[in-house]
Design goal:
Layout (H helix, E strand, L loop, with lengths): L4 E6 L3 E8 L2 E9 L6 H12 L8 E6 L2 E3 L2 E3 L14 H9 L3 E5 H12 L7 E6 L3 E7 L2 E3 L26 H12 L5 H9 L3 H25 L3 E5 H4 L4 H7 L10 E3 L6 H12 L2
Parallel strand pairs: 1-4, 4-7, 8-11, 11-12
Antiparallel strand pairs: 1-2, 2-3, 5-6, 8-9, 9-10
């Protein structure tokens, strides 16, 4: 029997459930996440979406926003999803789906997928997703680095000397706040990029500021880990022209990171979780 995994990606805006074999998503279903619900409800929603594939998979793997430590799930940013500390995610998945289960952070799963099937091509890499917040993952010497508590790669939580989180100065939430301050109107990251394309100087300035700060982060990562490649993903990281701006602000050539776009899009989490579940036995 060909090894097949039921992979689940639970994020702040959507739940993606997929039937995965190797690097192929055979089928997928998506629904909106209800932020006011709880993890058991999200698992039940995922189970309902997977019913047409009953009997077609041998294990389940979940990629989730937040921290996963020894199979237990804890929120990192309650504004994304509010989860009580140490929810027994792997145990709950096993009990509901009646098969072996594994869980890990979604950005770590995406990093592994890009290493195995995407832009990484089995090279040492750091993956950074710049979206509503900022997350990340690292694959070094062929190993996904999760750390003692599961927080490895959470670059958005790095603090400056004033104690400000990095993600609070570059992410979608920052774009919304900075754009509102500049214009007196409500905005999100998408509308800022649209305004910049139409020639709005304030929007151009915000995008360049975010790119300059991301370039600084990439330079610091290069000095800390010296990976072969740093990949940018997420709605902002993959926005037209953003990577070019980051490159323009990068360090001098000798120490400049090798930057590239992530390739696997919104399926990176399910592909990475499914594959990692076959490796991390």
């Amino acid at each position: 029997m060909t090894d097949t995994c039921l992979a689940i990606d639970i994020g702040g805006t959507k739940i993606l459930v997929a039937l995965v074999q190797g690097s192929t998503v055979l089928a997928r279903q998506v629904m909106s996440t209800e932020p006011s619900a709880d993890p058991q409800s999200w698992i039940e929603h995922a189970y309902s979406l997977s019913r047409p594939w009953a009997g077609q998979y041998q294990r389940v793997a979940a990629a989730v926003t937040g921290i996963v430590t020894a199979g237990k799930w804890t929120t990192l940013n309650p504004r994304t999803l509010a989860i009580k500390n140490d929810f027994p995610l792997q145990q709950a998945l096993h009990q509901r789906l009646q098969c072996p289960a594994l869980a890990l952070n979604d950005a770590q799963a995406a990093a592994w997928a890009e290493y195995r099937f995407g832009a990484g091509q089995h090279r040492d890499l750091v993956f950074i997703t710049v979206s509503t917040g900022v997350g990340g993952g690292m694959v070094l010497n062929g190993s996904l680095r999760q750390g003692q508590t599961g927080i490895a790669g959470h670059f958005g939580q790095w603090r400056d000397m004033a104690g400000t989180r990095f993600e609070d100065s570059v992410s979608g939430r920052w774009f919304a706040q900075a754009a509102a301050a500049a214009t007196g109107r409500e905005h999100d990251a998408r509308s800022v990029f649209t305004a910049a394309a139409a020639g709005a100087a304030w929007a151009e300035s915000l995008i360049d500021t975010s790119a300059r700060r991301v370039a600084m982060l990439c330079g610091n990562i290069q000095h800390a880990f010296d990976p072969d490649l740093i990949l940018l993903g997420g709605g902002i990281g993959l926005a037209p022209g953003f990577l070019d701006r980051v490159r323009a602000h990068a360090d001098a050539p000798r120490f400049a990171p090798s930057l590239a776009r992530a390739q696997l899009g919104d399926e990176a989490g399910v592909l990475g979780a499914a594959d990692w579940s076959s490796v991390d036995q």
